[in-house]
Amino acid sequence: MSVALKSVITETAQSLEEKLTSLLGEKVLPQEVARPERLLEAMNYAALSGGKRLRPVLMVEAARLFGHENEGTLVAASALECIHCYSLAHDDLPAMDDDDLRRGRPTTHKAFDEATAILAGDALLTIAFDFIADEQVHPDAAIRLRLSQELARASGIGGMAGGQMLDLASEHRDRTEAEIRQLQAMKTGALIRYACRAGAILANASDDDIARLTRFGEIIGLAFQLADDLLDLTGDAEVVGKATGKDAEAGKATLVSLLGESHTRQELSRLISEADELLAPYGAKANTLKTLARYIADRES
């Protein structure tokens, strides 16, 4: 990772941590009755456990590409990150991927218990839509409604949750390349696509620009999953921060298992070239997004 990109990611991650710490605080809001201490502790554990904060960074940078940068973008990015963190807490459960380690520390159900991890995930999912509805996100209620509806679709049956269902169903079963690509576009790609698209929407970008950022999000969403599959195959668990070799052990269908490591790396290279072409019209303003795309493809954790 370049020094410049590391600085951008660190700065945005720190700002996001501060915003999430505030939003997930003890203060009881109007129409709430109370915030149970143990549930709040588990929510903070799941949401404030570090990580690269890739999705918020993509949203912030997509908005910044069109000259939009304010606290409201961080609130919207916090909503997206809560959805992502809820999914991790649930995916790690024994009934799902059954993982004990996440980001180099015990998973939420190991640090607390299974019931608390489930409720923490439920609460993070729900509070995300509280955040996205806040007037601070955007003064135009129609924009907030659009962001809320698209977030629901990216995270629900036609997006992340549906993709996780397809992933579970793929264990010990042959899948075609088209089926695997669809699965990955939903499970991993949908929220990354949303991050890029939402940033452009927040900035009141043109329809053509939103479409361009949407395609960029689709490309790097697939690149992220391909890199993740390669890490599961070849990565060091201590560097990755979670157990590796889980896909093969579970008999899951991935593009790496179907096409092989060499072809997968070629596909990653092709995807990053397409991402560069998409962002070419924006010139130097898109350098951070271009660098992010390359980092996603080449990452080691």
Automatic annotation (TrEMBL):
Q: Fetch the CDD domains from UniProt.
A: Trans_IPPS_HT (cd00685)
List the keywords (alphabetical): Isoprene biosynthesis, Magnesium, Metal-binding, Transferase
Q: What is this protein called?
A: Probable farnesyl diphosphate synthase
**Which biological process, per GO, is one annotated for this protein?**
terpenoid biosynthetic process
What organism does the UniProt record list as the source?
Pseudovibrio denitrificans
Tell me yes or no: is Heme among this UniProt entry's keywords: no
Concerning its family, UniProt says: Belongs to the FPP/GGPP synthase family.
| Keyword Metal-binding among UniProt keywords | yes
One MF term from GO for this chain?
prenyltransferase activity
Question: Which cofactors, by name?
Answer: Mg(2+)
What superkingdom does the record give?
Bacteria
List the InterPro entries. Answer: Isoprenoid_synthase_dom_sf, Polyprenyl_synt, Polyprenyl_synt_CS, Prenyl_diphosphate_synthase
